[in-house]
Design a protein that fits this description.
about 450 residues; Erythroid Transcription Factor GATA-1, Chain A; Retinoid X Receptor; 2 domains; 14 helices; globular
Length: about 450
């Protein structure tokens, strides 16, 4: 399967092969090491090294010692829980397939049935996306209109409205931020002088539930007219964190999670939000670079200081494809939410949280399809087209393709962010006192 990172030269973390095909079970690896890890975990295999347990691990000799290869997989961070979750999912699919085969002799009515449609990142949930057979829908046009779920449309409207309200929040009173003296790097030459504090460190758990510890909610200025300075980049990062905390703490599905799982998920997905929100600002500002929240922008060019060229990849591999789709407000929100809730099985969350995130992600995909299909029908001049049902069929499959494309872009976002930032997430926040530098 082709992924966005196949065009980037990334080494396999296990055998140093130069053709890592993407992220497998938590780390970037080649297909050979991915398959070896999966077989070893599935069958609970144990190997013994004949050469002292210190065999070199390179592509040309990776098959010589399976014990050292397996230990190397553990050392670089491959996740056994991801393989076990994948196997449980496969067993469920096989059991459902057996039930479906047993009941296949029963006569089916012309309606949408459950079927799985796979994309590049995850399975697209059924119920709405796949028809039994297109010709069965050509009898009456009301059947096509019945695919529009008013409940999902209402929820999609609520999601975009909630995010818009969060973006419009502005603190009228300035937030007083106290900087701890133990974090300062300034050395005083006088015993009576008090050195100014350069920054303070706020743990993520404190900042997420008390965003006022980080800063104030300033008005968003999305013009992108001036080149960003280091202070501009830091101010934008802090403003993005405030938006992130405000939005997640108001999402009903997120609030259903335990506090521990909320923090785990929020830590790991902050940079996903950061890349997503700056992408939206860039699309609105139409600037040739990454738009920040304070009227500045980061130029879109290869960087000599950034070996991974994160800004260049952000713009060309994520922002440009998203721009071409001309997404609505809800579709843009759905891209982030699908990335937020996707692949939670590789995170250290409870099975209940993983199940809830998976079901919510499936529901989002349905909502994206219904939203796209509903907008297509609203945009036509004559709803019935004189009985031309092929037009409805065409709109149906275009909406389905669009929803799959948006789901794929969400997977690309996850992939790029992990390539740029790794798996560490955001554990603490450095609140810089820029007044000390500007004096």
């Amino acid at each position: 399967m082709h992924t966005v990172l196949m065009d980037i030269k990334i080494q396999c973390a296990v055998c140093q092969d130069k053709v890592a095909t993407g992220r497998h079970y938590g780390v970037f690896s080649c297909f050979g090491c991915k398959s070896f890890w999966r077989r070893s975990i599935w069958h609970n295999r144990r190997y013994k090294c004949k050469f002292g347990g210190n065999c070199p691990m390179r592509r040309i000799c990776r098959n010589i010692c399976r014990a050292c290869r397996l230990q190397r997989c553990y050392n670089v961070g491959m996740l056994p829980c991801a393989v076990k979750a994948e196997r449980r999912s496969l067993n469920k699919k096989l059991s459902k397939l057996n039930i479906t085969s047993t009941n296949s002799v029963k006569e089916r009515s012309p309606s949408i049935v459950s079927a799985k449609t796979e994309t590049s990142s995850t399975d697209v949930s059924p119920d709405v996306l796949t028809p039994v057979y297109p010709k069965q829908f050509l009898a009456e046009s009301p059947v096509w209109y019945s695919l529009i779920n008013e409940g999902l449309l209402s929820e999609s409207e609520n999601i975009s409205t909630l995010f818009e309200d969060v973006c419009n929040r502005v603190d009228t009173q300035p937030t007083v931020i106290t900087h701890s003296r133990q974090n300062t790097s300034v050395i005083s030459t006088s015993e009576d002088a008090v050195p100014p504090s350069l920054y303070k460190v706020v743990p993520f758990s404190d900042a997420f539930y008390h965003p006022e510890l980080v800063g104030r909610r300033s008005k968003l200025e999305l013009s992108g007219l001036r080149t960003a300075s280091v202070q501009d980049a830091d101010d934008c990062l802090m403003r993005c964190f405030l938006l992130y905390a405000d939005w997640l703490n108001q999402l009903p599905e997120f609030m259903q999670l335990s506090r521990e799982d909320q923090l785990t998920l929020a830590r790991q997905r902050f940079y996903v939000f950061y890349w997503w929100i700056t992408a939206i600002w860039t699309i609105r500002a139409k600037c040739n670079g990454i738009c920040y929240s304070n009227g500045s922008f980061l130029k879109n060019k290869h960087s000599t200081t950034d070996s991974k060229n994160a800004a260049y990849l952000h713009f060309n591999r994520f922002i440009q494809p998203l721009t071409q789709l001309q997404c609505s407000k809800f579709e843009l929100c759905a891209v982030f939410l699908m990335a937020l809730l996707n692949q939670t099985n590789v995170l250290n969350v409870s099975p209940e949280t993983d199940k809830l995130c998976t079901s919510t992600c499936d529901k989002l995909r349905k909502a994206v399809f219904v939203h796209a299909y509903s907008n297509s029908i609203k945009n036509i001049s004559s709803p019935l087209f004189g009985g031309d049902q092929e037009v409805f069929q065409d709109l149906f499959f275009k909406a389905m393709a669009r929803s799959c494309k948006l789901s794929q872009i969400a997977g690309v976002l996850l992939e790029l962010v992990e390539y740029a930032f790794g798996n560490s997430g955001l554990c603490e926040i450095y609140v810089v006192n820029w007044e000390c530098f500007n004096q």
